[in-house]
Design brief:
About 40% of the residues lie in helices and about 20% in strands. The protein is of the alpha+beta class and about 1250 residues long. The strands form 10 sheets. It has an 11-stranded mixed beta sheet, sandwiched between helices. The chain has an 8-stranded antiparallel beta sheet with strand order 25-34-33-32-31-30-29-28. Strands 3, 4, 5, 6, 7 and 8 form a 6-stranded antiparallel beta sheet that branches. Strand 30 and strand 31 form a beta hairpin. It is globular. It is a multi-pass membrane protein. This is Cation-transporting ATPase.
Length: about 1250
């Protein structure tokens, strides 16, 4: 590495040490990433810059003149301008700031992709040392030299500028003329990490501490006073305060006092819950607290420091007793057994190994086998040859993996749901309607000669009626109830806003292993080759069900015994379930030196031994399995004979190119097993030149994993979980598309998809293969294999192998409904091993049939000309997916996605990209996985469901403690119920406000209004009670193909609401008309235009009829099936309706003395009693007509036809249009048979 000093250039072995004679330049890539940002404006004077995730930053400077004028206006208008700029950032910028270049800005505005804006102050701090790209003078002039002296004599002290946004620090880079996010150790290769770090001296650590900040994931827990101010200044409560002042001015003291009491209770409850949630998250985030850790300095001195003071580049030493990791580190010496369940939900301990030097660029995802993440528990460190387990700190604080997950909880991704935007549109529509009433009210009171104060109070009162203050809270009732019900079903949700998305899901992506199938695998058999034949002429031998019967000298057996990552933890062998099954099947023993004192393993050159009788094999080097390579390897050492042999195990398609030669029927034998759903691993070995242990640790992986000798296949059986088939069938019958996204083999995935009914037996599969030149091939997948010619002899003939298990019988496994014969052959140690070119049965449909493996041919049983748009499914690998994204047209890729069902050999990144692509096509996507390698896709999906034993995993919005996919229908059912309930409550609240609006206008016309307690009865007793209990209705038990609506402004919804408004208004007018026909009725007379009389027959009539209407609307909008149970199953709602109906009837028919006085109701007389009973007829008519309109007319074909004429017909979602296009294109896909 080359670094620059004052006046000369010098080379240093490590630029991460600190020398007293000069300050050394830290390489730019070591500090932070340069690739994450793109400037929107080029050249000098950049004002706007993109900072990733669709967000932009814009520069401004505070204007002293504007700020002074603003505060004067705020004082004159009682703080109203301050409230406006508190809610609307763009207004704050316009009123207090002027545009500025980013380089000179002292405030910036970050505008997120959804349109939300945040104002951040740009801070300037002096610093003694700073890499050139961050160094500026105090006057903002860029330093032109590349010197790194502590002080610039010409321009003054060095400073650095930065702002913080959502717990991330962005620092100004003068050379790039842009802000750059500080991420830690980025843009560096593996060799630099493994070899170039020697520790950091104290002065440099202080400087880096200032740049990167404290190594802590601090979640602020605000004081109750702070929370109270933020809560009270919320627009909702400001509107409440405005309403209370207005009601008090109108002498509605009882109602105003009740609202104050309820609001106070709501605020107290909200403050308590908010603070408790912050405390819980703070405890989760803090983790290590003030833990003291050991680091190594450049002079090899070991010192203890507080974990908060760690900075990227520190050499952290992991103690023998383990540790809760306080930051993200890369291991450079030694291994660790780590529990990552806190981050991933995966309960199986993971083995982490030291970074291998190479020129490969370091990436946390591709090299995660060497990374110990913050928050994970190091159960057991393993250190060798006198070297302690050491690591390099790469990220600290919120830049760590855990920090990013905590940040995603604090600042969740804005998930735009049409329901909420439509709700705002509908409120605006209602407000427009109310404007007409406001104009009428002004005209009415001006005509009467009322004072301007009364006119203003009456008009503003209309506003509080049309836009009910409780509307935002009411819309969350259904979601919160659904969240509570899910918790009782052991499904935990950390993002309630996602529940409504569950109601509109139309595609669910499933991981395979551990999700659709059991986590564990059983070793079915091994299919080896004749190791005595020349390598270029090897042929398969008979399958062997019990590997213990293989000769102890068999390289296949030795590979199974050594090629794994198993280890001892607390006296138990732990590791990958597949490795555990494979090793157990060999009958060998695993031994580790000092297994009773596993944390004190110094000076051990051979970490593990596997033994059998007098054979001992030491595992002296391990190359970990990675999803990218899809293989692992080990190097073993044996004493007798003295030789080193490398064994490599992995996906057959990855092992084959590494082998010198393979049997001719390699693919046929492989496909014969994968098509039956078995998981197949290939194994090869290679003799390695003997070398020292230290030299072996530096050997590149490519040299070991080459020129292999193929020794055979391992056939693993992975059975479906009991819940898989019924759930897939239920989802399919509900027309919810199911997709398999797995890292496993294509044919294995296809077989599992057939078995679980994801692909119906009558449907065809088309294999999609894309190439780098942009071409795409479509080939029909084979349905089965057949021999090219018949033979007479069968199982049991002299020239046929014996197909049996250990008991001599045929072993059967579950398949597509029929029993399947599996080739399990007892090993017979004959001098000449029989070859697999002899026949054995794998056909589940013919017990007397055997197959010659050398004569197998693919049979498709389908012609391309009989394909249509509905009877085929696409299947592809991760390699094809990458080519589709990078080299093919977007339309071609989207067509493939629209018909894709199987996505095999998909890496975690590819899974996330698939979810993103589905979302771009307007799908509402769910992802269900085990939480380990599915984290990216789980967080990207609209609905991510992690199957984890943890109560709540931060890897996904939903976590199910029941480790199967039975949780998926439950989540969808609750989502549909919550969405329909949210619609119902919104429509109820909208109708409630409009009915009261009409009632008040009618009464204003008749010189009267509702009394204080009458408003109290309607708004609090009836409306609040009904709103709360309406949301308690439960979902139905089974999914249906129909989906709930997601648009409030659809024609059917608008028709429903306005028809109900018309019905209620008509009933009120009819009741007033009947009142005026009564001989005893006398209209209200007032002395002046400012007076209102509440004790009159007009107010009593409207109050009585409208009170029934609020209950009727609630019943009408409490529809049951197909998404919810019938309303009468909601006991709280039913009892509330009965009690409120009885109480309202009592108030109408016989308001006994004190009730009549309280409610300002006209007293009962013999003359007026018949009219009171007659009024009961109007609610009855209202109920019947409303039910008919809602359940018959609104859903009739006539209304639907009118809706199609008014609205744009046809599908609006992109994927629906695409499917129609595919259906009409008879020449696509161009299938090859």
């Amino acid at each position: 590495m080359c670094v620059t000093s004052v006046g000369n250039e010098m080379s240093c072995h490590s630029s991460f040490c600190c020398e007293s004679r000069s300050a050394l330049l830290v390489p730019p890539g070591w500090i932070m990433s340069t690739s994450a940002y793109q400037r929107l404006s080029q050249g000098d004077g950049t004002r706007v810059q993109e900072i990733g995730d669709g967000a932009t930053v814009t520069g401004y400077r505070l204007s002293s003149l504007k700020s002074a004028l603003f505060w004067i206006l705020s004082f004159l208008f009682c703080g109203l301008p301050y409230l406006v700029i508190r809610w609307l950032v763009n207004w704050r910028i316009k009123l207090t700031c002027v545009p500025s270049e980013l380089a000179a800005a002292d405030v910036v505005v970050i505008t997120e992709e959804g349109g939300d804006a945040t104002l951040c102050d740009v801070k300037v701090e002096p610093i003694n040392f700073l890499p050139d790209q961050f160094a500026t003078s105090r006057n903002g002039v860029q330093r032109q030299t590349s010197q790194t002296r502590l002080r610039d004599s010409e321009n003054g002290d060095s400073v650095f500028k930065y702002f913080e946004f959502q717990h991330e620090k962005y620092i100004w880079d003068d050379k790039k003329d842009a802000f750059r996010r500080i991420e830690g150790l980025i843009d560096i290769n593996c060799q630099q990490i493994a070899e170039d770090f020697r520790g950091i001296c104290d002065n440099r650590r202080k400087q880096l501490r200032q740049i990167f900040g404290a190594n802590e994931i601090y979640v602020e827990v605000k004081s109750y006073a702070n929370l109270l101010v933020n809560e009270v200044l919320n627009p909702f409560y400001i509107f409440q305060v405005f309403s209370i002042i207005l009601w008090s001015a109108d002498e509605y003291y009882y109602y105003g006092a009740c609202v104050v009491f309820i609001s106070a209770g709501s605020i107290i409850t909200t403050l308590y819950k908010t603070r408790q949630q912050s405390l819980t998250l703070q405890q989760m985030a803090m983790g290590s607290g003030d833990l003291m850790v050991s680091i190594r300095k450049p002079n090899d001195e070991e010192v203890e420091v507080n974990c908060r003071d760690l900075v990227p580049g520190d050499i952290l030493l992991i103690p023998p007793e383990g540790i809760i990791m306080p930051c993200d580190v890369v291991l450079t010496h030694g291994n660790c057994i780590v529990n990552e369940s806190m981050l991933t939900g995966e309960s199986i301990p993971v083995n982490k190994s030291a970074m291998v030097p190479s020129e490969e660029p370091f990436n946390c995802d591709s090299h995660k086998k060497h990374v110990v993440f913050c928050g994970t528990e190091v159960i057991q460190p393993r250190f060798y040859a006198g070297n302690k387990v050491s690591s390099v700190v790469i990220r600290t604080g919120y830049a760590t993996q855990k920090g990013q997950l905590i940040r995603s909880i604090l600042h969740p991704k804005d998930v735009a749901f049409k329901f909420y935007s439509d709700a705002l549109k509908f409120v605006a529509l209602l407000f427009c309607v109310a404007t007409i009433g406001m104009v009428y009210c002004i005209w009415l009171y001006v005509l009467r000669g009322s004072s301007w104060v009364i006119v203003l109070v009456r008009v503003l009162d209309i506003v509080t009626i049309v836009v009910p203050p409780a509307l935002p809270a009411a819309m969350t009732v259904g979601t919160l109830n659904a969240q509570g019900r899910l918790k009782k079903k052991d499904i935990f949700c950390v993002s309630p806003a996602r529940i409504n998305f569950c109601g509109k899901l139309n595609v669910v992506c499933f991981d395979k292993t551990g999700t659709l199938t059991e986590e564990g695998l059983n070793l079915l058999c091994v299919v080896g080759v004749n190791e005595e034949e020349p390598e270029d002429a090897t042929e398969f031998v008979e399958p062997v069900s019990d590997p213990k019967q293989l000769p102890i000298s068999s390289q296949l057996l030795r590979g199974m015994a050594t090629c794994h990552s198993l280890t001892y933890v607390k006296g138990n062998i732990v590791g990958d379930p597949l490795d555990l099954k494979m090793f157990a099947a060999t009958g060998w023993n695993l031994e580790e030196p000092n297994t009773g004192a596993e944390t004190s393993r110094f000076d051990v050159l051979t970490p593990s031994l596997v033994t059998k009788d007098d054979v001992q094999l030491g595992i002296i080097r391990e190359f970990d399995f990675t999803p990218q390579l899809q293989r692992m390897a080990v190097v073993t050492n044996s004493i007798n004979p003295k030789e080193m042999i490398a064994y490599c195990k992995g996906a057959p398609e990855k092992i084959r190119p590494l082998c010198k030669s393979v049997p001719e029927n390699y693919d046929k034998v492989l496909d014969s097993f994968t098509m039956k759903g078995f998981r197949v691993l290939a194994l090869g070995y290679k003799r390695v030149e003997r070398m020292s242990w230290h030299k072996l640790q530096k050997v590149k992986r490519d040299l070991i994993e080459s020129e292999l000798t193929f020794v055979g296949f391992l056939i693993m059986q992975n059975s479906l979980k009991p819940a898989t088939i019924p759930v897939i069938k239920e989802l399919t019958s509900a027309k919810i598309r199911c997709v398999m996204v797995t890292g496993d083999n294509m044919l294995t995935a296809l077989s599992v998809a057939r078995e679980c009914c994801m692909i119906p037996s009558q449907d065809n599969v088309i294999i999609v293969e894309a190439f780098e030149d942009g071409t795409v091939e479509y080939k029909l997948a084979a349905q089965h294999y057949e021999a090219t010619e018949e033979e007479d002899n069968g199982i049991g003939q002299p020239d046929s192998p014996t197909v049996s298990n250990n008991n001599g019988g045929i072993l059967r496994t579950s398949g597509d409904g029929d029993d399947e014969e599996v080739p399990l052959v007892q090993y017979q140690p004959d001098p000449v091993t029989r070859r697999l070119s002899k026949r054995f049965s794998i056909d589940s449909n013919a017990e007397d049939t055997v197959i010659d493996m050398e004569k197998l041919v693919l049979v498709t049983d389908v012609r391309a000309d009989i394909l249509d748009g509905s009877n085929y499914h696409f299947a592809m690998t991760g390699k094809t997916w990458v080519c589709l994204r990078d080299n093919c047209s977007k339309s071609e890729m989207q067509r493939v996605i629209a018909k894709g069902t199987i996505f095999a050999r998909m890496s975690p990144d590819c899974k996330q990209q698939l979810v993103e692509s589905l979302q771009e096509m307007d799908y509402i996507v769910a992802m269900c996985g085990d939480g380990a390698n599915d984290c990216c896709a789980l967080t990207q999906a609209h609905v991510g469901i992690s199957l984890s034993e943890a109560e709540a995993s931060i890897a996904a919005p939903f976590t199910s403690k029941i480790a199967d996919i039975s949780c998926v229908p439950k989540v969808i059912l609750e989502g549909r119920c919550a969405l329909v309930t949210s619609f119902s409550i919104f429509k109820y609240m909208a109708l409630y406000s409009m009915v009261q609006f009409v009632s008040v206008l009618i009464l204003y016309t008749h010189l009267t209004n509702l009394a204080d307690l009458q408003f109290l009865w309607i708004d609090l007793v009836i409306t609040c009670t009904v709103t709360i209990v309406m949301g308690r209705i439960q979902p139905v038990k089974r999914l249906v193909s129909q989906r709930p609506m997601a648009s409030l402004v659809s024609f059917s919804n608008v028709f429903s609401i306005f028809s109900q408004i018309l019905i209620c208004v008509s009933i009120q007018f009819a009741a007033m008309f009947m009142l005026k026909q009564q001989s005893w009725f006398t209209p209200v007379k007032i002395a002046s235009g400012d007076d209102l009389q509440t004790l009159c027959w007009e107010a009593t009539t409207i109050f009585s009829v409208s009170s029934f209407q609020y209950l009727i609307i609630a019943v009408v909008y409490s529809k049951g099936p197909p998404f919810r149970k019938s309303f009468y199953t909601n006991v709280e709602f039913l009892m509330s309706c009965i009690v409120l109906t009885a109480s309202t009837t009592l108030l109408l028919v016989y308001p006994i003395g004190f009730l009549g006085d309280w409610f300002d109701l006209m007293p009962t007389t013999l003359e007026t009693q018949p009219f009171r009973f007659t009024l009961l007829m109007f609610p009855a008519i209202n109920l019947i007509v409303s039910i008919i309109f809602e359940n018959v007319i609104s859903t009739s074909k006539l209304v639907k036809r009118i809706g199609k004429l008014v609205c744009r017909p046809g599908p609006k979602n992109q994927y629906k249009l695409l499917l129609q296009e595919i259906e009409n294109d008879k020449y696509w896909p161009p299938v090859k048979t």
